[in-house]
Specification:
It is built from 11 helices and 12 strands. The protein is of the alpha/beta class and 323 residues long. Its EC number is 1.1.1.262.
Length: 323
């Protein structure tokens, strides 16, 4: 286990984040030290809380309650109803978690779900999501989102854009960046000396020789050929509909898909509850549960913390421990 605890940012307090933090502590206790950056008032009633003054106190405090590094918010939290007054606090908690990792006080950061519309309306949040804001905080230009579970690791080359905009966004330069970051992440984060990466085509049947689209011929294949010449082990472009069954997955360490649903449908089908969002390209480890704020069940006690627990375990493992 990493000697430094994982910093958990609270996310949207009107969502299921408070329940996830409490349930993760119930599951992990002191076996995997982490601490929540947030307002203790937002946690479910009856949650044992152990307030800490600094991250290094988390390991000892975890035996007594959920370690919380208090980050006061202006307003209480009403499940399912985000309060604009709390929007800036959500953003600031993320920045605080990143700062603690950057200064070495925490080993990794695990972010609980935010609600981008609430942040935009309440605090003028201008980023498409967590990933882009974390990149800005870290001072890096390029990052990629990997979804990881015991069954599959997959990276979408394009993320939160309309499907109609994917072909234009899928430039050779962008795809090369995604593949390089994926390759480097598999080497540095997962310790794979020669990662095997399967690359999907954009069109049905990977374009079928140009009869159903030419992106494979004109964009994807030339990038793969160039990177193979450098020594990367890349397989593709492949038909996406035959890439994700068990025998196919055994032949690669990660898959790169061309758009959001092409990547997320298979991993959520294979392992809906334990998928983890991991950001590659940051100078620190960041994970997150692979789901949103779930306003419809917030405050009911029905939130499933399996993905959060998996995200904490992966964060600790990648930060240098054994989760």
């Amino acid at each position: 286990m990493s000697a430094r605890p994982v910093a958990v940012t609270c996310g949207e307090p009107a969502g299921i984040g408070p329940e996830l933090a409490a349930k993760a502590w119930e599951k992990l206790g002191a076996t995997l030290p982490f601490f929540l950056i947030g307002d203790p008032r937002h946690l479910p009633a009856g949650t044992p809380v152990a307030e800490i003054a600094a991250p290094e106190e988390a390991a000892g405090a975890a035996a007594h309650g959920l370690p919380v590094l208090a980050h006061p918010f202006p307003a209480a939290a009403t499940p399912g109803r985000p309060d604009p007054r709390n929007a800036q606090g959500v953003i600031d908690a993320i920045a605080r978690g990143v700062a603690l990792v950057q200064e070495g006080a925490a080993g990794a950061v695990c972010t609980l779900p935010i609600h981008k519309q609430a942040l935009a309306e309440g605090a003028g949040f201008a980023y498409p999501g967590h990933t882009e804001y974390l990149a800005a905080l870290a001072g890096v230009d390029d990052v990629v989102m990997m979804l990881a579970s015991p069954e599959l690791r997959v990276v979408p080359a394009t993320i939160h854009i309309p499907l109609s905009e994917v072909p234009g966004a899928l430039t050779a330069a962008h795809l090369e960046t995604v593949l390089r970051l994926t390759h480097d992440g598999l080497r540095t984060r997962f310790g794979l000396a020669r990662p095997r990466i399967a690359v999907a085509g954009l069109n049905p049947h990977a374009g079928e020789g140009g009869r159903m689209g030419r992106e494979e011929i004109e964009v994807i294949a030339p990038v793969l050929d160039r990177l193979r010449a450098e020594g990367m082990d890349l397989d593709g472009p492949r038909a996406a509909d035959t890439m994700f069954h068990a025998a196919a997955r055994a032949g690669y360490d990660a898959a790169v898909a061309m758009y959001h649903d092409q990547a997320l449908i298979p991993i959520k089908t294979l392992d809906f509850d334990r998928g983890v969002n991991l950001t590659l390209g940051l100078p620190f480890v960041r994970t997150s549960p692979d789901h949103g704020t779930a306003f419809d069940i917030a405050g009911t006690g029905r939130a499933n913390a399996a993905s959060t627990v998996a995200a904490l375990r992966l964060a600790a493992e990648l930060a240098g421990g054994e989760a």
